Structure formats: C-alpha cells, structure tokens
C-alpha cells in the first residue's frame, strides 16, 4: 500500500495557502496569488517571481503573481482552483506518491450536499493527477478529498476562543465574506451564508474614487499599497483628500457588513466575534472601531488552512 501525505489547501480567490507537516512534524507551507495566465497560440513565458509554469491536460498556464486573471465567480469548481490545489500540492509532496487532501469552500457551497459533492469530485479528479510544474513532471494519487467550510479552521487552531461560548466567525477573503455561528465549537448550519463582500469590493470602490480624482489608472497592487500607507503620495507626501476617501470607503464597507449580518437576523452585539482571512488584517483598525469586542486573528491568513490540517488529521484517522 502506498503511504500518503495529508495536505490542506485554502484556494482563495486572491491567494492560495497550503499546509502540511513533514515526517519530523516540522511545518511546511506555501503561499501564492491565485492569478492565472493561459498561454495560447504558441506564446511562451518563463514564470517570474512567486509564480509557476504549469501544464495540465495539455494546456499551459502561469499561476501566481505573474498571472493576470482572477476568477470572480462565487463557486470554486473552475480551472483556477484546480490549478491552485494541484500546484500547491506538488510543492509539498516531498517524495510522496499519494495524498489525502483537505480543501476549503464557501459556506454557501458547503451547506448544500450536492454542491459540496460536486466540488469534491472536481478536485478529486478521478483519483489521479498528472501535472507539469516548472518543467518537472508530477504524478500522484488523491486518496480522498475532505471539503470544509471557509472560516472553520480557526475553531481548531484556537479552540479556547469557542469553548462554552456562542461565537460568530467572519472570514473576509478576496471575493467572499463567509459567516458561521459556532455554539461551543459546533457549527450551526442554519447560520451559514456567503456574500460577495470581500476585498475586491473595497478595491473596486477605491480605484473608481481615486482614479476620478487623480486622473490615473491605479492597479490592484497600487490600491493595496495606498491602503497600507494611508493615502496617495504626491511628491512624497500623503494627500489628505485620499486619506478621507479611504476612510470613507472602509467605513462604508464595515457598515454594510454589519447591515448584511443583521439582515440575516444575527446581532454581533450579543455574541463573541472572531475575524479571519487576509482582508481582516487589512481592516484591523476599522473592525476594532466598529466592533470593539471582536478578535482579529494575528495569523488570519493561515488560521483556516492550519485548522483544516488538524481537522483532516482527526477525521482521516477515524476512517
């Protein structure tokens, strides 16, 4: 019997995170942007930066920071996410020929048995994968795929935050916001919902506002940098107008987040709140301003995928 390796993957819309432990229980992980460039018509590039040249089913791609396209569909049964999961897996195989995968999906997909099964089957790929990454051929078997709801991993990385408590977990990703309430560590299925209310909404609104004022065309990287530095720099100095615009956009985003949760008949004032996902780090100060009692995880980017691994280790051991 072939020995298999447990690998967890969180194939987010903007970034892919994967995690495992080696034979000595030393952590191994990988992070890259879930941006894809399909190479057609004999066009060829060597991947630059944190990117990978990938050949899957005879088609060639670049995935990573040199990619150009982001999948804005709510679901994850797209070539983007299959490429992300398989590419991440190859980088953590460490000589193994078989894997047991744990992957995340939006809560709206997870709570629907048929959609969850379809996503599992799509990633399972009939149990066999042949993929070329950076001119190296990888062939491995997928023994099983465990699909978990996005945001659930933190319950296993920080169980002390959930024991004997009613806690709302808000996962802010690149495209989606996932919401689930946990009662004493147990997820409440009726509370699960997903909204298109992630970082992409902030970026789009900021880009539109700032482009109209400065008469320029700001890229995604520009917007991220502008948020981090607190405004647009003109000749080395932050322009106060841009600071006001950023503040307004982020406040409106948080107001809408609260409003959408209330629409679903949940009141964050009467329960503990935990934020995960990369966007929650970007919004840390605004989250604490609007929801002072909220906990924003320091390891918000990795909390999900590390928790997925722990859940996978428990569930696969039972089988």
Task: Give a concise summary.
The protein has about 325 residues and is α+β, with helices and mostly antiparallel strands. The protein has helices at about 80-90, 105-110, 115-125, 155, 200-215, 220-230, 240-265, 280, 285-290, 305-319, and strands at about 5-10, 15-20, 25-35, 35-40, 50-55, 60-65, 100-105, 130-135, 135-150, 165-170, 175-185, 185, 195, 235, 235-240, 270-275, 295.
List its traits.
319 residues, 10 helices, 9-stranded mixed β-sheet, 6-stranded mixed β-sheet, 34% helix, 30% strand, alpha+beta
Describe this structure in words.
With 319 residues, the chain is α+β, with helices and mostly antiparallel strands. Helix content is 34%, strand content 30%. A 9-stranded mixed β-sheet has the order 3-2-1-7-9-8-5-6-4, sandwiched between helices. Strands 10, 11, 12, 13, 16 and 17 form a 6-stranded mixed β-sheet that branches. β5 and β6 form a beta hairpin. The longest helix has 24 residues, at 240-263. It starts with a strand and ends with a helix.
